[in-house]
Amino acid sequence: xxxxxxxxxxxxxxxxxxxxxxxxxxxxxxxxxxxxxxxxxxxxxxxxxxxxxxxxxxxxxxxxxxxxxxxxxxxxxxxxxxxxxxxxxxxxxxxxxxxxxxxxxxxxxxxxxxxxxxxxxxxxxxxxxxxxxxxxxxxxxxxxxxxxxxxxxxxxxxxxxxxxxxxxxxxxxxxxxxxxxxxxxxxxxxxxxxxxxxxxxxxxxxxxxxxxxxxxxxxxxxxxxxxxxxxxxxxxxxxx
Length: 240
Known about the structure:
Strand order of the largest sheet: 5-4-1-6-11-8-12
Number of strands: 13
Strand content: 25-35%
Structural class: alpha/beta
Distance between the termini: 35 Å
Number of helices: 6
Order of helices and strands: EEEHEHEHEEHEEEEHEEH
């Protein structure tokens, strides 16, 4: 499909596992390799040709708002204010839909970070997205090879790149890397208020409309203060 020009950046979480760093700043402002996480995300979107990014804010919203106001490079930033009520990932996107437009858009977690491979991952997500067949195309990384990730993975993938959520008591080979292309149609009958995007992942999977794109490069899960040094070491190694 044609290039995607809008994105939703999910930046409203409380960052509890990143404390004490997030006692006074939101998690997207935590620095990795000398720059806030959210700048790494916005740089990826800029490189992918995104012109407009909606960023939702809640925890220490003023800190994030001031930082974004000083950013001069694309994409253009539009804030979605959740100071009054934290809407979770799904509810936050639903609230922002009027700003995101009628076509498919990127969704990115504000704390997702990776070392790029040969083919830019966001471009691959957009190029392979077919709105007639897909509600979501998720960027997924290797559960075993990701930096700082110690969970059991999120998805199984079949030969046509369809994803199935991980069954209980199973180690899944793929973990969601915090970036996706989304069709706004999936939100047409979504619930009001706060809800998790994972609810819509399950619905799409049941309909055979949840697909994945294997990440080229290395995904880094920066979930705790201790994980920052591990991510920075991986970035430095990638420069050799």
